[in-house]
Amino acid sequence: MFQRIVIGNLTNNFPNIDIGRKNNEKFHKIPFRKLIHRVTYKAEEEGISVELVDESYTSQKCSVCKVIKKSNRKYRGLYFCSV
What we know:
two-stranded parallel sheet; 2 helices; DNA-binding; Cas12f1-like TNB domain-containing protein
């Protein structure tokens, strides 16, 4: 069973994201804080903790040892820890 839910915290950089006119319109309509609140509320009812993490370097950071090393990411979805 799940122990923890990790959500990327976009609240600081959210207004600055530019992914093209049409995608910006769709993306900026998402009620992100409301979504986080609801996920947190439902998770806590089930005894699951919710953690907000900074999105910076998440594709280059090891989820276990937290080392940031770009060369450890072999391709999208595949990361090898060098430690």
